[in-house]
Amino acid sequence: HKYVPSVHNRHHTQGIITQTARTHHFPLPLLATAEQLYLSALTQGWGPEDDCVLVRLYLPPSQPHLVATQAGHPSSNNNNNNNNPSAIHHNVTWETIRDIMIAVHMAAITEAMAFCQFLDVDVELMYDIVANAAGNSKVFGEFFKGMQGKGWRVEGLERGGEVVGRL
């Protein structure tokens, strides 16, 4: 049976981790925020759905296709993108959103691995677990080793520094 990264499963797992962090008085602000987003999704009845439904929390119920519309997706019938397929709104581009997401993932790596070290969890084991999980991220795989060698910092990582520099 294949693991499905449902809202319920993610919230449950994150709840265990945030409770452990609270017990040890270890701050995990990104994870705590994500836990609250998953809780909000659960209250909407989205528990069994794939965790990508979280984007719905930010969309008006009357406009479920707003992301595609703002992105100028071909099926959205939106002609207000000024012929620039990467323009979304207010000069925010898909590249900017990608860079923000990469930066958030790098911050999450820092937060998670600092907590692993605090708990004396083998970070190589944690890498193997996360890298082979259903919710693995390309960013995690790309930046983990470089960040590990720099004390979980982004400074000095060629691509990571470029991403942060653009923001």
In short:
The chain is mostly helical and 167 residues long.
Low-confidence runs: 75-88
Oligomer, anyone?
single chain
Q: Order of helices and strands, N to C?
A: HHHEEHHHH
Helix content bin: 40-55%
Strand order of the largest sheet: 1-2
The helix/strand class is: mainly alpha
Topology, number of strands: 2
Distance separating the two termini: 41 Å
As a whole number of angstroms, the C-alpha radius of gyration is: 18 Å
Label the overall shape: globular
Main sheet? 2 strands, antiparallel
Residues in β-strands, percent:
under 5%
Count, helices? 7
- Average pLDDT level: 81
List the helices and strands and how they pair.
Blueprint: H1 7-23, H2 29-43, H3 66-70, E1 87-89, E2 92-93, H4 94-118, H5 123-131, H6 138-148, H7 158-166
Antiparallel strand pairs: 1-2
Helix pairs in contact: 1-2, 4-6, 4-7
Walk me through what this model shows.
- This protein has a two-stranded antiparallel ribbon.
- β1 (87-89) and β2 (92-93) form a beta hairpin.
- It contains seven helices and two strands.
- The chain has 167 residues and is an all-alpha fold.
- Mean pLDDT is 81; it is low at 75-88.
What tags apply to this protein structure?
mainly alpha, 3% strand, two-stranded antiparallel ribbon
